[in-house]
Design a protein that fits this description.
Helices cover about 20% and strands about 45% of the residues. It contains 4 helices and 13 strands. About 5% of the residues have low confidence.
Length: about 280
């Protein structure tokens, strides 16, 4: 065998050994109890609401990640006691390089089939408006994975990107006569990426009833010093494609007048998250 062939085999063997070592060492590098406290406290501080989950585990394949089970984000107390968002499983990816150096840094946060209820009360207030408001108490400090002499993970506590996979969002308008249901979004696939003081949003969903396809393209949300999420500036494009709007229009306007037909087009978005405008 040539010298080059031996070098290739040696390099391949070294890679295999490193991969096996990483798989074996991963549960020892990540203190799941500390990570659970770290994620819950920092997520609660970022959202301004309590965040809880029932269990945490570490998975290796296809990428190193922390598995979150039974995750819930609390509702604004003015709108009820149930959770604002709930899901059975979430996955917080771990950056392998820093992990092998004894540092805990997070990558993508993937939320599998989250269910959220968006509520607007009789005064026009939204239950998501208070998201991001400062939580009481000091900001959680950095933490280190078990056995690590390295630096803390304070800079990498929050995910670099958030993905919603197969979510459901229901909309409820509470008029003066009490709670009344309206419509919902299904198959919500969204990606939220921080980008130089703003958030880039892209994805798709189906508006029900009527199965109207919704796509978001080049959408940005810019807080720009806003006191609440609803005041963040909005810009981008909204695509719509529906074959028959009869059931959707009936849900919004009632059975009379009966309006049917299809729709397909694109709208330019501006305004704010709480008061969007489309043209």
């Amino acid at each position: 065998m040539s010298r080059f062939g031996r070098w290739v085999l040696t390099a391949a063997a070294a890679i295999v050994v490193l991969a096996v070592a990483a798989v074996v060492a991963l549960p020892f590098l990540v203190d799941t109890r500390r990570v659970q406290t770290l994620i819950a406290s920092n997520a609660s501080h970022a959202l301004g609401r309590p965040v809880r989950f029932e269990a945490v585990s570490v998975s290796v394949f296809p990428l190193p990640a922390v598995e979150l089970r039974g995750l819930e984000v609390a509702e604004d107390p003015r709108f009820g006691t149930g959770p604002f968002v709930r899901l059975d499983r979430g996955q917080l990816r771990l950056r392998l390089g820093p992990l092998l150096q004894g540092r805990l840094e997070f990558g993508d946060l993937i939320l599998k089939k989250p269910v959220a209820a968006v509520i607007q009360d009789a005064a026009g207030r939204w239950n998501f408006a208070s998201l991001g408001a400062p939580a009481p108490g000091p900001r959680p400090g950095p933490s280190r994975p078990r056995g690590s002499p390295g630096t803390g993970a304070g800079g990498g506590v929050l995910a670099s990107r958030v993905k919603l996979d197969g979510g459901v969002v229901t909309y409820v308008s509470r008029g003066r006569g009490g709670a009344a249901g309206a419509y919902r979004l299904e198959d919500v696939d969204l990606t939220l990426t921080p980008d130089a003081g703003s958030f880039a949003v892209g994805g798709s969903a189906r508006l029900m009833p009527g199965a109207v396809a919704i796509t978001l393209t080049d959408v940005t949300m810019t807080p720009n010093g806003a006191r609440a999420l609803t005041e963040a500036k909005l810009a981008g494009r909204l695509g719509i494609d529906g074959k028959d709007l009869t059931s959707l229009v009936a849900t919004v306007l009632g059975p009379e007048p009966s309006i049917g037909g299809g729709v397909k087009g694109a709208l330019s978005l501006d305004g704010t998250v709480g008061l969007p405008r489309a043209s």
